[in-house]
Structure formats: structure tokens, C-alpha cells
Specification:
8 helices, six-stranded mixed β-barrel, 380 residues, D-amino Acid Aminotransferase, Chain A, domain 2, Branched-chain-amino-acid aminotransferase, alpha+beta, D-amino Acid Aminotransferase, Chain A, domain 1, globular, 2 domains
């Protein structure tokens, strides 16, 4: 019986493709999922996760794939899995440290009611990571083979996937430039590594957001639609200011009309009666400043499958939100993401006022979506 089983057909997980068997793969930047140079160090069972909050920082194994390229050759070297230890990089000169030449992904593996392990729509993560790598001028990789490598890592640490509660195993593939250089240029060396840690619920309560247009998370022509490391470090200062208003996250606005883009690291959804009197689930469009979230796409797929109300990807502004609140047309506002799953938004601090948002509790659309997604993730 395979370790990883397929989830429902609406969110397919394709079987692992055949991979080469040697430790070194040449040409077209591929690498083996079953390399012979496999270094293992098994641990005793850790304490099981049950209801604890993310993040859990204990890491048991690290999976690495190194890439070198020159005008005459380009190949991946040495796939290995080793007991967690510091990565060895040049002590001073490193493009990742100097130029933030890094990107990452986040996905989860769940243990179902039938004890089988399931990855949730991992091909979407591989596709997004490939797009981010291209934008960062990092080398191309075979998406199906990287997924095969991740599956191999999960097999090694399968006993670490929580058996109880809502916990799961969080998987963080990371891709960095490692050339020892001070120059701002396309790297000739790169490292792709994967780490995993146990994770629970990111937020346990409704969120309060702080919205101020003086800070911008992303802009047209930038990298807001890629999961680049630099996108996140630049948000910390605004996040700190949000805390001074007793808010947990930032509601990122864009443009003179204060377009709603993202909330913290979440995609944003409004469930309301729109200006035309129609019930609608709306989220900002993928116009280059919005991260194409896997959970976001799953919500849109589910809602369109239900075909019970209008589902839109369109621009939303704070003016529209304030009007809907005043006219009592807003049903709820919530965020989505791999880390937070589905998270209700209870209030927004905007233009020195606190906007209290409605909460339909167990009968809300967000609760229904969360239940359906959880059923898919753990029941198959």
C-alpha cells in the first residue's frame, strides 16, 4: 500500500513519476528522487502534536539538492537526506545573504482517518515554485521529480506526521543562490533543500487587521505573485506598527483607491450582497501583486462547483467594503492560506476608525468551506 494516496478527484494528486537512479543527473536540470547517495539518520518517535500552535521548530531531516552550471555544463549534484544540522554556505560571500536571492514554498501532509498520508494539491506548489525560480533567475527543475523527492522525505519521516488532533506536517522546500560573489548577477550555483516540521493551527481566534496605504506589500511589475523571501522580510516593519494598534496582521492596500490585496500572508475573500443585489464570493484578481494561493484556488473551485452564488475575481476597495458595512450587505470577510487555512476577520482599523465585521459563526460560508477542505485533506 502506498504511503501517499490520492485525494478527491476535484483536487488530484498524480502518482510519482519514474526517476533516474544515479546520484548525479545530467542535462536539463533534473535530479533523482531515489538517489543512491542517500544518507539517513533515524530518530525515535517525537512527542505527538495535538492542538499546539504553529510554529513547531524541531526539524529531524533536511533534504538537499545542489545545482552548478557553467557555459558548457549544467547539472544537479548529490541528492541526500541527512539529520538536521546547519547548512554549510560561504561564511561571508553569498548571493542569498547579500541579494535576498531566495524563494520557498509551503505545503502540508495530513494523516487521514484511515491512517494514510495525503498531500494537498502539491502540483500547484511545484508549479508556483517553478514560476518563482524563473523570476529569480534560479535554475529550472523538473516539478514531478522534486515532488518525488519530497515524497521520499515524507516516507523517511512518516511516523512524525501527527496521529491526533488537527496537526499535520509542514513542508518547506527552499531554493537559494549560493554563489560566493558580491556581484548582482544570475547565480552559477544554487541549493534546493526541503525541511519539515510539525504544525498546528496558525490562528485560533478571529483576526484584527490594520489597514494603512502608506505601506505597500507589492506593486505592478514586481514579485508579489512569487513566493520570494524578500517579499516577507519587507513586511515586518508594518507588522510591528499593526501591533501598536492591537492588530494581529496588516491588511495590505494598493493604489489611490485603496484596493484590498492581501491580509498578512493570506488571500482575502468577501462574502456579501454586492452592489447589484447578488450574493457573491469575491476575491482580488491575480494581476501580478497577489500570490496565487493553493487554498485560494481550492476555495474558488469548491464555490464554483456548488454553483449557489456568484463567484468573482475582481478588484475590491476599502470604499466598497465600508459601503457594504454601512448598508449591512457584508456577510463576512475571511483570509485563506496554507498556514492559516481559513481564518475569519473580526475587525479592521482603517483611517483611525475600527470597523467591526459581522460574524455568522457556525453558519458562515467560511465554516462550510473549512469543513469541506478539512474533509478532503484527511478523508480523501
Amino acid at each position: 500500500m502506498p504511503i501517499l494516496s490520492q485525494v478527491r478527484s476535484v483536487f488530484p494528486l498524480l502518482p510519482m513519476s519514474s526517476c533516474c537512479s544515479s546520484a548525479t543527473c545530467s542535462a536539463e536540470s533534473t535530479f533523482p528522487a531515489h538517489a543512491k547517495s542517500l544518507e539517513l539518520c533515524m530518530f525515535s518517535d517525537p512527542e505527538r502534536l495535538s492542538g499546539r500552535q504553529q510554529p513547531q521548530v524541531e526539524i529531524r531531516h533536511v533534504q538537499t539538492l545542489s545545482e552548478t552550471c557553467s557555459p558548457k555544463e549544467k547539472h544537479w549534484l548529490w541528492f541526500c537526506v541527512f539529520a538536521s544540522r546547519p547548512l554549510e554556505l560561504h561564511n561571508i560571500l553569498n548571493q542569498n545573504l547579500e541579494c535576498s536571492l531566495s524563494l520557498f514554498e509551503g505545503l502540508k501532509v495530513y494523516r487521514g482517518d484511515d491512517k494514510r498520508l495525503r498531500l494537498f494539491r502539491p502540483l500547484l506548489n511545484m508549479e508556483r515554485m517553478s514560476k518563482s525560480a524563473k523570476r529569480a533567475c534560479l535554475p529550472a527543475f523538473d516539478q514531478s521529480e522534486l515532488l518525488g523527492c519530497i515524497k521520499r522525505l515524507i516516507e523517511i519521516d512518516q511516523d512524525w506526521v501527527p496521529h491526533l488532533g488537527s496537526g499535520c506536517l509542514y513542508i518547506r522546500p527552499t531554493f537559494i543562490g549560493t554563489e560566493p560573489s558580491l556581484g548582482v548577477k544570475k547565480p552559477n550555483r544554487a541549493l534546493l533543500y526541503v525541511i519539515m516540521c510539525q504544525a498546528g493551527s496558525y490562528f485560533n481566534t478571529e483576526l484584527s487587521l490594520w489597514a494603512d496605504p502608506k505601506y505597500t506589500r507589492a506593486w505592478k511589475g514586481g514579485t508579489g505573485d512569487c513566493k520570494m523571501g524578500g517579499n516577507y522580510g519587507g513586511t515586518l516593519f508594518a507588522q510591528q506598527e499593526a501591533g501598536s494598534y492591537d492588530c494581529q496582521q496588516v491588511l495590505w492596500l494598493y493604489g489611490e483607491d485603496h484596493q484590498i490585496t492581501e491580509g498578512g500572508t493570506m488571500n482575502i475573500f468577501l462574502h456579501w450582497i454586492n452592489e447589484d443585489g447578488d450574493e457573491e464570493l469575491a476575491t482580488p484578481p491575480l494581476d501580478g501583486i497577489i500570490l496565487p494561493g493553493v487554498t485560494r484556488q481550492s476555495i474558488l473551485d469548491l464555490a464554483r462547483k456548488w454553483d449557489e452564488f456568484k463567484v468573482s475575481e475582481r478588484y475590491l476597495t476599502m470604499g466598497q467594503l465600508c459601503s457594504a458595512l454601512k448598508q449591512q450587505r457584508l456577510k463576512e470577510m475571511f483570509g485563506s492560506g496554507t498556514a492559516c487555512r481559513i481564518c475569519r476577520i473580526g475587525s479592521i482599523v482603517y483611517e483611525e476608525k475600527t470597523l467591526q465585521l459581522p460574524n455568522q459563526d457556525k453558519h458562515s460560508l467560511s465554516s462550510r468551506i473549512a469543513t469541506e477542505l478539512t474533509d478532503i485533506q484527511v478523508s480523501g
